[in-house]
Amino acid sequence: MTSFDAPKTIRHFQSICDACQELVSKNHSPAELRLYANGYLDALRKCKDLGQRDQETLEKLIERWILDPSSFVGPDGDISKLFFQKEN
Length: 88
Hints:
Blueprint: H1 7-25, H2 30-47, H3 52-67
Helix pairs in contact: 1-2, 1-3, 2-3
């Protein structure tokens, strides 16, 4: 992980993470999470709510976070019960 300079960036990161967790609980795929996050990040970019450095850092971190399956471990912490794991 990395740190952000502005508290506003931390709030945006947390908002994206919370929304993605909610989408996962509704059985959305990683591709759908990426679409959501890209839309959120594009809106931030267009309204220039963050500085360029924080925007770029946030974009890179969100991309890594979505691709990391451990970001979606269930509340009990059991890695064998990843949200994206298909039931047999």
